[in-house]
Request: fold
Amino acid sequence: MKLEYVNVADNDNREITAYTSNYKLSDNTDTLGQEFTFDLVSNPIDVNMDNLQLAMGGKITFSNDKANNNRTSFNDSGSEQELQSIFTGIIVDCKKSGINKYSYTAFDYAFYLNKSETSIQYNDINGTTAIRQVCAVNNVPLASVPIINTKIKKVYEGTPVSDVIKDILKQATEETGNKYRIEVRNNQLYVEDYKDLVLDVAITGIVGDYSYTESIQDMKNRVLIISSSEKNMQVLANVEDGESIKRFGVLQKVQKVEDKEKAKALQVAKKYLDDLNKIKKSFSVKVLGDDSVRSGRILQFNQPIIGMVGKFLIKNCSHDYGQNHTMNLELIKQE
Reply:
């Protein structure tokens, strides 16, 4: 493993692996960006360990040995490591404990998409072009974006760049049912269809902390689509699952659509019902770590003893780089 730090403003460029520890990399599907945390020792009473702390906004790069994936212990041999960069980001928080311990939090460059606001107007252009435009205006390097034919006609004023992109994708999902993942990799923005994010990773086995839950708290078995017009609120579509209502009672969702989308109201309602009318099955497992695994990916399991067979969406992913490289995953069963 290797952790490097660069602060251009202070002309400070150094490797900090020797006096840092507790590396943890995490992300989830509800937020944009990865979070990396670690501890650093800087001892003011030791001349060799003094003034090692890091500055806000400094850049860090974490690299891991490829041999440390899917194994029970780190490679402690004298052979040369094959390092690959796993995370690059900026330091955004620091906490000091006692006289010598500093705990740092860094985010990848999605941090700027979440914090930087923009104003932009779309006049009935397709979603792909809309995303390209907002990225170009805000100097966001865009690596990939799928073909999104949904027409976007909306004004965004003082809206975070990430929220603009999320809203465009939300409109596309409501129209087509396709779901999209946005994330930063190698300092570039990727917008991808979830169906293209199935991982070809061998899960070698559960190593601990297995749990399973079922819930209907997010279930909806009736969907009403109404007009967004405040002057003339109108029910445009109403779909329901009678058998589900008989079993669980009415769990209703009301969704507004703009007037220009009235013709698609029934289609939107059916897609919401199809997505929400189900018992949510989630699993939490601890498995051997693999750097290619992160939230938003789909893993395949074949472990019938614990009821994990089929495809599972990774909702939360947390890598721990300690004595062993392990992952804690929260998984949602996919139908």
Notes: The chain is about 15% helix and 45% strand. The mean pLDDT is 89. The two ends are 38 Å apart (CA to CA).
